[in-house]
Automatic annotation (TrEMBL):
<dbReference type="InterPro" id="IPR005467">
    <property type="entry name" value="His_kinase_dom"/>
</dbReference>
<dbReference type="InterPro" id="IPR004358">
    <property type="entry name" value="Sig_transdc_His_kin-like_C"/>
</dbReference>
<dbReference type="Pfam" id="PF02518">
    <property type="entry name" value="HATPase_c"/>
</dbReference>
<dbReference type="InterPro" id="IPR036890">
    <property type="entry name" value="HATPase_C_sf"/>
</dbReference>
<dbReference type="InterPro" id="IPR003594">
    <property type="entry name" value="HATPase_dom"/>
</dbReference>
<feature type="domain" description="Histidine kinase">
    <location>
        <begin position="1"/>
        <end position="132"/>
    </location>
</feature>
<protein>
    <recommendedName>
        <fullName>histidine kinase</fullName>
        <ecNumber>2.7.13.3</ecNumber>
    </recommendedName>
</protein>
<keyword id="KW-0808">Transferase</keyword>
<keyword id="KW-0418">Kinase</keyword>
<dbReference type="GO" id="GO:0004673">
    <property type="term" value="F:protein histidine kinase activity"/>
</dbReference>
């Protein structure tokens, strides 16, 4: 399930549309992967994989939050998630470039920030801020 809470006061910002789309799709894809993985690992048929997208107007910035209720990220892995070629996915399922490219798109190309908050076994939330 995907829910959204979009702030009507966000307005418009200048971005490279294809690049931002690629970055958001990487985060969303990873979120769905983690949420469905949690369901299969726990075997809990009542667990409902979920993802939420939220936007907030922060005056001189726009904030985008993508949150999943998946497996969470261990501390030792969290420190490496933006490193090129780092992946926790099985061979053939991930290249380790998605979050690295996402970081470059948000931070280097757009002058924004990309942070991650997580609790193991509960959630992961990526927080993107983009300047106006």
């Amino acid at each position: 399930m995907l829910t959204q809470d979009l702030d009507p006061d966000v307005g418009e910002i200048e971005v490279y549309p294809q690049e931002i789309t690629r970055a958001l799709l990487n985060v969303i894809s990873n979120g769905f992967y983690a949420a469905t993985r949690r369901k299969s690992e726990t075997g809990d048929e009542t667990f409902d994989p979920a993802l939420s997208a939220t936007t907030n107007n922060l005056d001189d910035k726009v904030e985008i939050r993508i949150r999943d209720n998946g497996t969470g990220i261990p501390v030792e892995v969290k420190e490496k998630v933006f490193n090129p070629f780092f992946t926790t996915k099985p061979a053939g399922e991930g290249t380790g470039l998605g979050l690295s490219m996402t970081h470059d798109i948000i931070v280097k190309q757009h002058g924004g920030t990309l942070d991650v908050e997580t609790e193991l076994g509960v959630f992961t939330e990526f927080i993107i801020t983009l300047p106006r």
